[in-house]
Design a protein that fits this description.
Number of domains: 2
Shape: elongated
Number of strands: 3
Strand content: 15-25%
CATH architecture of the largest domain: Irregular
CATH class of the largest domain: Few Secondary Structures
Mean pLDDT: 85
Number of helices: 2
C-alpha cells in the first residue's frame, strides 16, 4: 500500500443526533452530527413523526382533503 494516502481512522468517533442521543462508531471523521437516529426514526420507534420541509406535508394534507370532498360531491351527483 502507498503511504500517506489513506485518511485517518477514528475507531471511537462520536455521533450526536438532533434528538440528543449520542453513540460511538468507527469513522474517518472524529465527530458526526445527524438529524435522525435509530432512537427517533419512525421505523424503529413505531411512532409517526412528520418532518415538514417548506410546508410539503401541509400541502399534501390540503390536496388529500380536497380530493375527499370532490369524491363526496361526485358520488352525490350519481
Amino acid at each position: 500500500m502507498k503511504k500517506d494516502i489513506h485518511p485517518k481512522y477514528y475507531p471511537k468517533a462520536d455521533v450526536t443526533c438532533a434528538c440528543g442521543y449520542k453513540f460511538q462508531v468507527g469513522s474517518t471523521q472524529p465527530e458526526i452530527e445527524t438529524e435522525i437516529c435509530s432512537h427517533c426514526h419512525p421505523f424503529f420507534t413505531g411512532q409517526e413523526k412528520l418532518i415538514d420541509t417548506a410546508g410539503r406535508v401541509k400541502k399534501f394534507e390540503a390536496r388529500r382533503q380536497k380530493a375527499q370532498e370532490m369524491k363526496k360531491v361526485n358520488s352525490k351527483k350519481k
